[in-house]
Amino acid sequence: MLGVGRNLLSNGRPSETDAITQSVERATLPVVITANGTVEAERSINLSPKNSGVVETLLVDEGDRVTQGQVVALMDDSNLRGELLQVQGQLAQQEANLERLIAGDRPEDIARAEAQLAEAEANLRELSSGSRSQEISQAEARLQRVRTTLQQREVNLQRYESLFSAGAISREDVEQRRADRDVATADVREAEEALSLANSGSRDEQIAQAEARVEQQRQSVAALRSGNRSEDIDQARAQVISAEGSMKTTEARLQDTEIQAPFDGVINQIYAELGAFVSPSVSGGNTESASSSSILQLSSVVNEVVVNLPEAQISRVGIGQPVVIKADAFPDETFTGQVAKIAAQATVSQNVTSFEVSLSLDLPEAEKLRVGMNVEAQFEVARLENALLVPNAAVVRGPEGEGVYVLEGDEPRFQSIQAGDTAQGQTEVISGLDGDEQVLISPPSEAEPSGGFQLPSPP
Description:
Blueprint: E1 2-5, E2 19-23, E3 25-41, E4 44-47, E5 53-58, E6 65-66, E7 71-75, H1 78-103, H2 107-129, H3 133-165, H4 171-200, H5 204-226, H6 230-255, E8 258-260, E9 265-270, E10 277-278, H7 287-293, E11 296-300, E12 303-310, E13 322-327, E14 330-342, E15 347-349, E16 352-361, E17 374-391, E18 396-398, E19 401-408, E20 411-416, E21 418-423, E22 426-431, E23 438-440
Antiparallel strand pairs: 1-2, 2-23, 3-12, 3-17, 4-11, 5-7, 5-10, 6-9, 7-8, 9-11, 12-16, 13-14, 13-17, 14-16, 15-16, 17-22, 18-19, 19-20, 21-22
């Protein structure tokens, strides 16, 4: 309890200053440490397309809430749709080829190849057997005809030369008859060669060519009858797999033109307009770069509080520890949460070492808090159970250590104490007091005005 102690000067006159005192008391109090911080988004990213392109449609506005997987924007996909049709056609072609190889050749293809083989074999037999007697007779008869024609034209040429010498005809008539004679001579030589060939039969190289054609055709028929080779089918199957891969790649790129929200959140800012060309973003950094590499900014609905605790206090805080939060914007309300993260590395600012502590907020009340608000976090780190307490203002800290001034009768006396934690304006006294003392609150300094009350210096 508070009281007024009587203080006398050495000559016995009352002092000009009344000393306010308070009784030492026992109580149970929580030990709370506080830290200032701000509300921050638990997650915040800039959404960008995976590939450069033109923004075709925006499906959200600033401030809209979106859910995970919701499409928020569409990129122009006209080129990709054409590419998809092309790879789908290639896949269909490769699949048809594979089916044809697996099914084998059609009966009509085998029949056609067998007919060609029979034709080649007949030609080989004809060449191998030589010329028939009828062919030789025909060649001889033709030779006889062209020889007779040659004789007649020789006679005509001689007759025309005689007429020309007599001046009865022109030189052109003679030359015409000579040309007829030369043609007949050539026919005779050709007929003689044909007869010679007929008598000697086919040449070896002609027979060899015919034999090679027969062998080639036999192999074709055998291949058609036995079906396609396994390696050809494996190659065709690999081509199908390659075509399927190309199609899936194109489909994935087409899917990437739909910009989806990766988590539930709020659209904070839209950077791109319709028709804007946007390139992929390599970082979710500053707004200036985001305007050319991002479409919009998305922040999570659930926020967190980030505070900095001094190095001396960080050991008293642990993950999951409850915390009470007060916001400047809501002076009459309190919010609750827990310690979610403690930074592994300290930061130093103005020669003060501190650790960043992230606090998760309890819903739904915490939804009132907005990103950027200033808050105070209160951590209950201990409880003073039935502790001996004195006001903080009564504790004197000097060169000789900590202590309080205790009234003994009318005289103050400095008493050294061992102080513990502080809570709610009170300091725990571990030793040095019995509990029935009266301590001075804000004791006067030694330099009081003349005639005033002076406290003795601590021993």
